[in-house]
Amino acid sequence: MDSSLLAALSSLLLLGLALYLARLALLGKRRRSYPPVAGVMLQQLLNWGRLSEYMTELSRRYGTFRMLTPTCNHVYTVDPANVEYILRTNFANYGKGAMTHDALEDLLGDGIFNVDGAKWRHQRKVASFEFTTRALRDYSSGVFRDMAAELAGIVAAAAAAGERVDMENLFMRSTLDSIFTVGFGVNLGSLSGSNQEGAAFARAFDDASEQSLYRFLDPLWKAKRLLNVSSEAAMRRWVRTIDDFVYAVIDKKIEQMGRDEHEFAKKGDILSRFLVEREKDPGCFDNKYLRDIILNFVIAGRDTTAGTLSWFLYVLCRDQRIQDKIAREVREATTGDHQDAGCVQEFTACLTEDAIGSMHYLHAALTETLRLYPAVPTDVKCCFSDDTLPDGHAVRRGDMVNYQPYAMGRMKFLWGDDAEEFRPERWLDDDGVFVPESPYKFTAFQAGPRICLGKEFAYRQMKIFAAVLVYLFRFETWEHDSRVGHRPMLTLKMDGPLYVRASPRRSTGN
Ligand code: HEM
Questions:
Q1: Model pLDDT, residue 20
Q2: pLDDT higher than 80, residue 128
Q3: Is residue 446 predicted with pLDDT exceeding 60?
Q4: Which keywords does this chain's UniProt record carry (predicted)?
Q5: 457 lines ligand 1 (CB under 6 A)
Q6: Ligand 1 pocket: which of 125, 304, 381 to mutate (most atoms within 8 A of CB)
Q7: Which of 37, 47, 196, 482 has CB 3.0 to 4.6 Å from 54, enough for a Cys bridge?
């Protein structure tokens, strides 16, 4: 071989080697910037009973980190810059993804919670419009006031009999009744137990919600569904019960509308509003669309407010000073300083929008509850293509990226040394006026284009319920200083009942 050929070959070899080393260096660099591995899924399962605390401990140590699972990487972060990036700046790259959609499809269908892209955009637009109408605001406030009065009646009866009352259970039932009435214009009667069909729906709804969650842990769920066996056979029955009930409500409404269109147009529930819209533009959506979108609202608005009210009352039981301060504020905002309302109905009528709006301390106490006990403790997004987060960490296509409201609420670097203390005052300025925080730091309602659509609605409901209960009663846990923990679910649920003793602050005479 002549020397020039040898030189050319050597140069080629050297070039190849250089390119190979450069690629390795690049890959190495990428690998280095991938978030550190804090553990594997097995460790999460071993810490299942205290999962939120476990994830908080890891967040304190690592900030942004990875947990390895058999199917994909889960990236976790508590950095507000990363949160803003995935929820707003690069919104299009992070969504529900196919796995979540499949697991939730039987119950949620193609409702707003369960879709991305054009389907999501359309529903968001329609629903945002409905949620800001005066008609829905007035109607829902009326429903909340009636429901809070019914709840107060049950608590008053228990107080008179000296019996304990499980407030977690009462909140679950009353918020289901409230949101179903607002959504479909029908009272399920689960608080009073008066409606058999409604009770069957409520049971099927609870069971189907739990099974939807279980699917995330059961790799065989699709096979079971195909064979219609075990929990998936039950799931099919529950979904049929739900659908039969909901479609019957829709048919009945359409019939009502046919009878008296003028009268019907005044109805405030979401289903009636949608049916009126459909009359104007026939074919814009079918009954399946109505079923999906309204049922999604029921799911979104039920466990979240019920859970928050339960944690709120639990915290108040442990601090009578805060409880008294709220009772005082409610009294001043409604009946004036020197008089009490004569009966529950008279009092709830005083809970006008202005009165509710002036309760800054109550607003702060509910927000503080959500900071420490966010209804959605961890929220996950599927990464659609390789990306780099603002803190420099790489994420890859198919990774599941989690921001963590529960852990974020406990980070000293975000809230100061007293991060773990319940202190409503942190939300108030010197004049006692509520001052909101960045939604990328206080993430309980998510943020960006998919921020919770029911936030204002939820505060109104929670403030009406809380105002009625704390104005009328003083609450203590049934067993002195008893503590409750939480169950690892999609929402932050208590791990047992919240038994309380209620003593009347004033007469509930009717
Ligand atoms: C304390 C009460 C509540 C909290 C903490 C809360 C929190 C959240 C969170 C974290 C999300 C994002 C879920 C996700 O897509 O991953 C969300 C979405 C949503 N929430 Fe709420 N929520 C509450 C109450 C409500 C209520 C009462 C309603 C309706 C009546 C509601 C309607 C919705 C809807 C429709 C979405 C989906 C928005 C979209 O994807 O564009 N929420 N909420």
A1: 43
A2: yes
A3: yes
A4: Heme, Iron, Membrane, Metal-binding, Oxidoreductase, Transmembrane, Transmembrane helix
A5: yes
A6: 304
A7: 47
Backbone angles phi, psi at 147, to 5 degrees: -70, -40
- Tell whether the model's pLDDT for residue 26 goes beyond 70: no
- At residue 437, the pLDDT reads 98
pLDDT band at 423 (very low <50, low <70, confident <90, very high): very high
CA angle 498, 214, 406 (to 5 degrees): 55
Query: Whose Cα sits closest to atom 11 in ligand 1?
Result: 452
Closest to 344 (Cα-Cα) out of 151, 474, 502: 151
Name the residue at shortest CA distance from atom 32 of ligand 1.
Answer: 454
Q: What's the whole-model pTM score? A: 0.89
- Beta strands 37-40 and 65-68 are parallel
Mutate to test the pocket of ligand 1, among 452, 461, 464, 465 (most ligand atoms within 8 A of CB): 452
Cβ 294 under 6 angstroms from ligand 1: no
Q: Is 490 in the pocket of ligand 1 (CB under 6 A)?
A: no
Is 343 known to sit in a ligand binding site? no
Q: For the chain, how long is the longest CA-to-CA vector?
A: 111
**270 pocket-lining for ligand 1 (C-beta < 6 Å):** no
pLDDT score for 270: 87
Tokens matching residue 248: 């019957």
Q: What are the beta bridge partners of residue 37?
A: 66
The per-residue pLDDT of the chain, averaged, comes to 89
State the pLDDT at residue 495.
84
Task: Categorize the per-residue pLDDT at 25 as very low, low, confident or very high, splitting at 50, 70 and 90.
Answer: very low
Q: For residue 159, is pLDDT > 90?
A: yes
Residue with CA at minimum distance from ligand 1 atom 27: 301
Helix boundaries (H) for 261-358: 261-264, 270-280, 287-317, 320-334, 344-349, 353-357
Q: Which CATH superfamily is domain 29-504 in?
A: Cytochrome P450 (1.10.630.10)
Does the Cβ of 376 fall within 6 Å of ligand 1? yes
From the CB of 299, is ligand 1 less than 6 Å away? no
Ligand 1 pocket residue status of 182, Cβ below 6 Å = no
Residue carrying the six token digits 């409230």? 178
Query: How many residues in total does the chain contain?
Result: 510
